[in-house]
Amino acid sequence: MGNKKRGSRRFQHGSLCESPDGKRWIVKYYYAPDKQTTKTLGSKTQISRRQAEMMREELVRPLNQSPFRSLAEETFEAFVEDVFLPMKQESGEWRQNTGKESSREISGC
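The structure assignment produced for this chain is given below.
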């Protein structure tokens, strides 16, 4: 009962750590639900902690961006045309004729 999956993604910072031998900076983060990975950033003698933190931020930034949060002026029409219709056609739920007809009906043209 306590093993429920969460439906929403969380914002993440990643975890900046030293490698087990203490010689390198590493970042641990999740690239998908329950899919953790570790990336080596480089040697501690060549990269300062602040530089490693900046590299970590750049690494997880794309993971935290969502197509639904991209623009404040995002409209429902843009969502339907750019996300919903392509998703339905690519997933194979709609055949080509169904996609064309549904697109025409939804857009009102």
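Interim note for the steering committee: The first strand starts at residue 15 and ends at 18. The mean pLDDT is 77.
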